Amino acid sequence: MGIRIVADSSSDLLLWNGVDYASVPLRIITDAKEYTDNEALDVSSMVQELLNYKGRSSTSCPNVADWLDAFSGAEEVLCFTITSNLSGAYASAVEAKKEYEQANPTAKVYVVDSLSVGGETRLLMEKAVELLGEGKTFEAICAEIEEYKKTTHLIFSLESMKNLVNNGRVDRLSALAAGLLGIRAVGQASDVGTLEMLKKARGKKQALQTIFELVQERGFRGGKLRIAHCENEETAQELATMVQKRYPTADIKIRPCGGLCSFYAERGGLILGFEGH
Ligand code: X90
């Protein structure tokens, strides 16, 4: 039997053709409604509803039973989670691993703490599938992913950080600039998987320039780049064109943010996962 890939929905990938893959949803919760981040979720409608909604909103991570469901039936599982520094998803996955291995003594589960979200997590998952295709063993794949993780990065640009601040995922002071008209907050997933503010950019052009510089500073030289956007395909495309012009062989893919990333990145947000050094 092959290796199953499992990831929570912060990876923005719900289905994966040709791969034994399961996505485990996070949830977005308001006093009025609960949204489950799976294929049935209409992300655009959710973003619009949340913009009109004035009450409290929050998110919740998968619990142990959710992870166990996704592991069920598999002999070997590679499980990818959102950064353990901003969510309980990693902790519940580790607990699920223990329970699963206890109940199935020959089964193996390896939990990767992405220390990131979205595109960077996806790069780790893509690497796993690539190594699987090369016929590598489970142990070798786990070790290589941990090495690869040291070379991948995440940069974001956000027009609002309201939901991040309200849910205590970033301190209010660092987030002050985002939300002012025309100011974009540009930052990164730090080495320990926290949200780190780096720059303020005024207007779209400056934001794109800033992002491009930061991406290159972190060693991007035309490898893989995964851009996720919240209702901002046009800017994502502009960025891709800019990168492709400088690095014609770059492997760039654009996709919309899923529910969880849309909730935190908010309308206009861009999240980039890429290969560097
Ligand atoms: O457990 C939960 O309820 C989920 C909490 C998630 C908190 C943060 C998600 C951030 C999503 C925002 C821009 C990228 C920041 C990257 C920092 C590592 C996307």
Describe, in short, the structure shown.
The chain is of the alpha/beta class and 277 residues long.
Features:
277 residues, alpha/beta, Rossmann fold, Hypothetical Protein Tm841, Chain: A,domain 3, 2 domains, six-stranded mixed β-sheet, four-stranded parallel β-sheet, 9 helices, 37% helix, binds heptadecanoic acid
Structure description:
The protein has 277 residues and is α/β, with parallel strands linked by helices. The chain has 2 domains: 3-26 and 61-149, Rossmann fold (3-Layer(aba) Sandwich), CATH 3.40.50.10440; 152-275, Hypothetical Protein Tm841, Chain: A,domain 3 (2-Layer Sandwich), CATH 3.30.1180. 37% of the residues lie in helices and 26% in strands. It contains 9 helices and 13 strands. The longest helix has 16 residues, at 118-133. The two termini are 34 Å apart. The mean pLDDT is 96. The structure holds heptadecanoic acid. Heptadecanoic acid binds at residues 26, 59-61, 82-83, 86-89, 116-117, 154, 156, 169, 189, 193, 195, 261, 264-265, 271. Heptadecanoic acid (X90) binds at residues 26, 59-61, 82-83, 86-89, 116-117, 154, 156, 169, 189, 193, 195, 261, 264-265, 271.
